[in-house]
Amino acid sequence: MSPAAQKVVAVTGASRGIGSAIVAELANRGHVVGCLSRQGRGPEDRQVPGALVNLGCDVTDEVQVRDALAALVDQAGRLDALVNNAGLHLDGPSEAFATADFERVLTTNVTGTFMACREAYPHLVASGGGLIVNLGSFYEQLGVRLTAAYCVSKAAVGALTRSLAVEWAKEKIRVLDVAPGFIATELNTAYMQQESFRRFLERRIPTGGPGQPEEVARLIGVLIDEELPFLTGETITIDGGQSINQ
To answer: Residue 5: which pLDDT band, with cuts at 50, 70 and 90?
Structure first.
């Protein structure tokens, strides 16, 4: 890529799974990637060559979020995009689900996303605008047993995306919600080892099975690379057609 096309992108939850795949995709496209994770070591499940800035950041701590984004701008000179990938998924029967666990999910998935957007805002304004991609989930459309907190949190991410898109459009900041379906990662390896579960996914997902983190990452890479001023506030579902399969 030419230097003019290079962008500075912050990615939260950059250490593993979809997050590290996003980092790899963006680095491969020639971007400077700020890798925000609790350990501050960048991708841990793959080798990623490229211009990476590894920063320690717990997205539930607003001071750490503010300081990490400021450090990225200090080192890279600007901020062009933010990808809010960090998230928490706790499940259990709702009648016995602890309030503290419910709040943990919402704090990470909703409040953390909001704080990162808010702290990125002045840097994006200083760059003349930019893009925020929030990671939602196709669960926001569904009623799913044992996952009320997660479903609520991802529905809230969609609502937050729409609200910020409208509010910040005048600053040329676009906000999108990318909502993956079932993606094969190390977090669900145990499920994927069950033959019955694999067959269930083959039946439910029209494309024949789960998606890969790299597919979500490529979609986000395209959204960051392409200048589409009229595209904002939308939830883009990438689930192999599962949510529309009746």
So the answer is: confident
